[in-house]
Amino acid sequence: MAVLAEPIAQPKRSSLWSRAFESRNCLGAMFMVPAVAILVLFLAYPLGLGLYLGLTDTKIGGAGRFIGFGNFVSLAKDSVFWLSVFNTIFYTVTASIVKFAIGLYLALLLNERLPFKSMIRAIVLLPFVVPTVLSAIAFWWIYDSQFSIVSWVLIKAGLLTRYIDFLGDPWNARWSVVIANIWRGVPFVAITLLAGLQTISPSLYEAANLDGATNLQRFRHITLPMLSPIIAVVMTFSVLMTFTDFQLIYTITRGGPINATHLMATLSFQRAITGGNLGEGAAISNAMIPFLVAAILLSFFGLQRSRWQQGGRD
Amino acid sequence: MTTVDDQSVGMDYLESFPKKFLRVYVPLGLIIFFLLFPFYWMAVTTFKPDAEMYDYEKYNPFLIAHPTLEHIKKLFVDTDYPLWMWNTVIVSVSSTFISLFASVCAAYAIERLRYTGSRYVGLAIFLGYLVPPSILFIPLAAIVFQLGLFDGNLALILTYPTFLIPFCTWLLMGYFRTIPYELEECALIDGATRLQILVKITLPLSLPGVISAGIFAFTLSWNEFIYALTFISSSENKTIPVGAITELVNGDVYHWGALMAAALTGSVPVVILYSFFVEYYVSAMTGAVKE
Fold first, then answer.
1. Nearest C-alpha in B relative to A47
2. Using alpha carbons only, what angle is made at residue B32 by residues A163 and B4, rounded to the nearest 5 degrees?
3. CATH code for the part of the protein at B74-290
4. How confident is the model over A220-232, as pLDDT tens digits?
5. Where are the beta strands (DSSP E) in A99-181?
6. Window B:241-270, CB contacts with A under 8 Å
7. Once rounded to an integer, what is the mean pLDDT over residues A234-255?
């Protein structure tokens, strides 16, 4: 039987093998063409071009000269640039910490037994779904200096005597945009952490209950360690989105008052597109990259470490 | 999941209703109030006549005494808003379909064809997901200008996939991974080509994943702002977010009614779509993070 089948099977097997070779690499390459073409032309190439533009004095509508680190030298002496670096770090750190705290708390609340749970979850996610610019316009109106509803309520409640100048004072403006960012970011953190909470086996809590663990102990020794890998990823994304934020600031303050809320992203837009200095704007964007890489590494590996300390996979 | 419910019923016996009310419902209510208030304020302002909007003494600001459609009418008749809406729809739909097509092919190749180096390509695509638009828009503006795409829908349709493809590919790779190899092997033995396998076996089985990726990609492109702001200059080519922020503000005069009407009507289509596909949306959002 085997001897009989051999001569027929032999040529087929070799053609199959060649087909397999084709399906592995040639076919693989063909399947990759659409994605790779778009990503190379509009992602990888601009990334490289941006790095180069940062080293030139390109203006809109004119070819630039290579000036080495000239842009960075002038930025190093530019107090507005350093203010934007400070603002970006302040914005990212405060907003991320509060987003994490409220997000985790909300996730724990949503993990309770609740009526209409899926509907509540759907509602909670709304701020993340609605276009950021459009909800930022609503915040802009809430922060209006004359007709702010927040000021009005506080005055009626007798807590204030005059309207708050939300966007006219540097620190008020900074906190105002941080609050708007928290509002938008909390749902993302809460819902993704909730998904993580739902994967924790209830038997762990039962065992802890039998051993007489308190609520706080169960949170500290079961929930937090089990959740830490997903916390690392969620917070990495959150930090990344906050650090590179553009929409909220551009809509609510445009960087004002007196550059007090300019982030590096909005400053690079102002210098490059509004001001026409593409080279300088690109240099500001490029200056974000080391901060960005540091933020990713810090939040990702810093929190990831607790995973292998507990004997988890890598 | 059922065990979770059983356990919490058991726990509930130990907790009186007032205690649970204080511990769970009160903070939950406060947070939801904080999250929903801007939408309420948006809606109230949209339907409030100007006379009431700027007079908090005579009218309670939280209510509308004489609802009006004046702001919405002004928005649709006196501005290019219908065109912005049309552009946003065209751009979002096209870029979503382009991204889905490219991502399905790429994810299948990476996950199932497993060509040499596919792991590294997969990793590179994930890294592409971490590159924020805020550092790409300046060089992209130069490229868009060189290609002659400036100030047209095509500029957005071709650049939005740069953040959609990495996301969709990453998500679909996760879904494709759950499909048993045996099914594909059976089809291969029956003489199906790779393309037939993808179209007739892999895609139908991972349809939830494709829908999730599509819904999420659509909302992401509907929300996109910085590219649209940079690459589009004439009013009739703008998308809703850009048009609302640049065309409805004349110097120091803010038409709050029209602005809020634009914010509300620009959000409603996404929210409606989202409400039909909440589960898919959530699984897209959490799926991308869980991997």
1. B136
2. 155
3. 1.10.3720.10
4. 888 888 888 888 8
5. none
6. 241-242, 244-245, 256, 259-260, 262-264, 266-267, 270
7. 88
Is A58 within the bounds of a domain? no
3-class DSSP assignment, residue A62:
strand
Q: 3-class SS at B250?
A: strand
Nearest to A240 among B7, B125, B130 (CB): B130
CATH of the domain at A244: 1.10.3720.10
Q: Is A133 on the interface with B (CB under 8 A)?
A: yes
Domain hosting residue A197, numbered range: 77-308
Question: Above 60 in pLDDT, residue B74?
Answer: yes
Confirm whether A71 is domain-assigned. no
ipTM over 0.90: no
Q: Report the domain count for chain A.
A: 1
pLDDT (mean) for B221-244: 90
Do B162 and A286 count as a contact with CB atoms less than 8 A apart? no
Residue A66 lies inside a defined structural domain of this protein: no
Please indicate if any CB of chain B lies within 8 Å of the CB of A191.
yes
Q: A292, A286, A258: which is closest to A272 by C-alpha? A: A286
Query: Residue A274 burial (CB < 10 Å; 0-12/13-18/19+)?
Result: exposed
Write down the pLDDT at residue A2: 45
Q: Is residue A203 part of a domain?
A: yes
**A22 pLDDT more than 70:** no
Most A CBs within 10 A among B30, B71, B75, B138, hence the mutation to make, goes to B138
**Does residue A271 contact residue A280 with C-beta atoms inside 8 Å?**
yes
